[in-house]
Amino acid sequence: MKIDDVSRIISRNAACGLFALLTTGCASVAITSRPTGADVILAIPGQESGKTLGKTPLTSSVSDIAKAANRATLVVTVKKPGYRPHSFVIPNLGSGVLEIDASLQPIGADDSQDINLAVRYILEAEKQIIDKDFKTAIKTLEKAKTANPNIAAAYMFEGIIYNLQNDTGKAKESFIRALALDPTDTEVKALLSDLGGDTAVPVPAKKGRK
Predict the structure, then answer these.
(1) Which domain holds residue 37?
(2) Cβ pair 203, 179 in contact under 8 A
(3) Using an 8 Å Cβ cutoff, are 157 and 141 in contact?
(4) How do residues 76-114 score in pLDDT, each as one tens digit?
C-alpha cells in the first residue's frame, strides 16, 4: 500500500505465511533511508528524546519494537543531521514484512512551491469528499502527500474518507499520522477518540522547516 513517495510501505503477508507453521511473530519492519546511516528513533511515553533503535538500513521484528515502546501504537522517526526528519506510524501487522524507505530532504531546501501544490490538492480533495467521490479524493490526497508529506490536513481528510467507508483501521492510522504532524489539532483528536483510538500518541519532534 503506497502512502507517499517519501515513505513507501509494502506488506508481503503471503511470503511470511509460508513459514507460519514454523515461526511466530513473523511481522517485521525493514527501514531504509536516503541518505543511509540515519538514526531510527522510537517515541517513548514520558521521554522527550525517545529510544534509538539503530541506524539505517535497519531490520527488526514489530514485536520487539512494541516491547521497547510498551504500547500498541508505534511512532518512529528517521533523522540525520542536516536533513529534515521523517516520522511515520508502524501499523499493527499480524504477519508480513513492512518496508519503509524514507527520502530525507536537506534542511534549507525551498519547499514553498511543494507546500502550495499540496494545499491545492487538499482543497480539491475536500470538494470531492463533499461530492462523495471518495475514490477520486483518495487519489488526490496521494498527490498532495507526494508533493509534501508533512501537511497534517491530508491525513485528516484521508481518515475522514476511511471513516465514512467504515474502514476503522485505516481511519485510525490516518488520524494518528495527522496527530504526529500536528499534535494540537483538537478536531483530529476528537475524531480519533470517537473511533476508540489513543489520542495521547507519543509524538516525535515535528519536522522543521527553514
Answers:
(1) 7-103
(2) yes
(3) yes
(4) 889 899 888 887 777 665 667 778 888 888 876 656 677
